[in-house]
Amino acid sequence: MTSLIPLSNLRHFAANDLTDEQAGVLRDVAKQCRLDAVLMTGIAQSGHVAGALSGMDIFNLLLAVANTTPENCRDLSRDKIVVSHGHASAAAYATLAAWGFTRRDDVVPNFRRAGSPYQGHVERTLKGIDWGTGNLGQGLSAGVGFAIADRVCGREDARVFVVMGDGEQPKGQLAEARRTASRFKLSRVTALIDVNHIQISGRTEDVMPTNIKELWEADGWSVSVCDGHDYRALYIAMKKAAESDAPTVILCETVMGKGVSFMEGIPDYHGKPASGDLLAQAIRELGGEQAEYELMKSLRSGALPKGFAPEKIEISLDLGTPKTYTQADKKDARGAFGAALADVADKNAHLPGRTPIIAFDCDLAGSVKLDIFAETAQGRGNFFQMGIQEHNTATAAGAASIAGVVPVWADFGVFGADEAYNQQRLNDINHAAVKTAVTHVGLDVGEDGVTHQCIDYVSLPNNFFGYKAVVPADPNQTDRATRWMLAEEGCVLLAMGRGVHPIILGADGKPFFGGEYKFKYGEIDKLREGSDATILSMGCVAASAISAAEALSKKGISARVLHVSSPLAIDREELIGLIKGRPLVTCEDHNVNTGLGAITALHIAQSGIAVKMKNLGVWRYGDSGKSVDVVAAMGFAAEDIAAAVESML
Ligand SMILES: Cc1ncc(C[n+]2csc(CCOP(=O)(O)OP(=O)(O)O)c2C)c(N)n1
Q1: Beta strands 559-564 and 524-528: pairing type?
Q2: Tens digit of pLDDT for each residue in 97-149?
Q3: Are 187 and 245 in contact (CB under 8 A)?
Q4: Which of 117, 403, 559, 580 has the fewest beta carbons closer than 10 A?
Q5: How many CB atoms are located within 10 Å of the residue 74 CB?
Q6: 270 C-beta closer than 6 A to ligand 1
Q7: Which of 135, 174, 199, 391 to mutate to test ligand 1, by most ligand atoms within 8 A of the CB atom?
Q8: Quick check: 61 and 280 in contact, CB under 8 A?
Q9: Which protein residue has the closest C-alpha to ligand 1 atom 8?
Q10: Residue 287: left (phi > 0), alpha (psi -120 to 50), or beta?
């Protein structure tokens, strides 16, 4: 094993230059790492080996200069490294092993083995991997999110490095991230592109000609070009970037497959490992021995190595005193969200040790009510106008959420949930904790019509295994759900409509969700008792459900009215206890095939009981017009709910 001691003064660019001896040590380490990449992909017979070989020197030097060590990887003031082209995992793992973040004897035999932390694309199951990637084009946004969190938290010395492929450069989200880094002068971000000129389908210049240098320059980045295998040149470029007052990108010219003669400069080995005689040749060329390969291979059936548990996100916030609205306030749910957010932000602004709240807006602050936060003491510094760049915003908020702040992103549902679906999925995979407040969901969007009708704000997060979704019934429940969400672990989607709906009152005539009511995730709200039928509602449709029950009662029909604000966390036993033995009508301002009705049907089927059921909701693309008319045309107004109940009795 090569000693890394001669390299110690490179950390945080303490040395002005690299000595010949240091360059030699780095080359030795890289040779070992290249061998390990060939071994691990050879043993797994899977993986992207040639790109790992081209980028190896970049990864290796990065671990020498960044303030990222096996010891400080839970410390938020460390430098963060994002591997944007997550398929270069073999390079990341080999260098992390060389630098002591993980064990070579674990990674080489267990690369891409089911259950091991050495997943196909980099994940946070490993020390030194700060953001899991694989969907190309998202890494720079994660870097932006980290840099924003570092700035808000006053971590002056922390830097962010983003390593990328040249094949991912045409991706649109990258342009969003570049502009954001420039706009907020995130000079602590350094991007390193492995320009090996090759991607899956051939030469990058042929696949999709992209003026990489000009694009980064046009977006305000400082750009330098260097030989990505020349350690001195790389070190000087990286040091200069670290000292620059603009975000800097280094185009590292490299050779695909570097170090293995038959892989150099050809696309074949982009996503294919060497095998047979060629694998043996590659091992020889990199100074390895066949016997070691056989030994490592035999270890693949052994016990699985353990992964790393990323730092737990601790949120410290005083959630303040909930506000109770009455009908006279004429409040919409989004207004209650904005006010509650601003209230908590204000309350905690000057208290020591409190987690900073930051907000991301995509040009809709007035509509999504982030403008209230922006005017608070905390909001004045922590409000980030991201422009119409939802993909970038979703990822940046995700990364920021694991770096010591509570990021709230508010947007229309079609943009925050639908437009950024894949970014939100990656947030969930990364165990992020973004609070996405989506407004204008459902037909409640009104005149904006079909393109703006987000009718899958429950079904989309239902595809993710960690996401929570909350659909409050009225401004009072929204106020309390907002406060709860801010201190809650994991990603939460808070879905609200646009209109002013009635304040939900209890049978006693008082605001049901006012006063001492506490929001509890998963709880079913029992709005009215009844014995002949059950109406199960979600979100703003709760008011129509109550109106329906009142109309039915005039006809001598007694309907129980329930409200589900947490459709992804319904307690099945409780639900079944509440609905069994009577006809059931579900009603929701959501796609009826994939929302509350469908979730309820699954619970009923899996519990083995029979319930006569009708599901009301959005069953076709809706119209553009007053939401009350659009809802009536769709068939889930109060009269429709009452008629559905009657039809089953
Ligand atoms: C969004 C997205 N589209 C497609 C892919 C599939 N894919 C994996 S690697 C790759 C080529 C990447 O080329 P480059 O960034 O140059 O990496 P290198 O060739 O250097 O390994 C593609 C298209 C992906 N991972 N993500």
Answers
A1: antiparallel
A2: 999 999 999 999 999 999 999 999 999 999 999 999 999 999 999 999 999 99
A3: yes
A4: 580
A5: 12
A6: yes
A7: 199
A8: no
A9: 87
A10: left
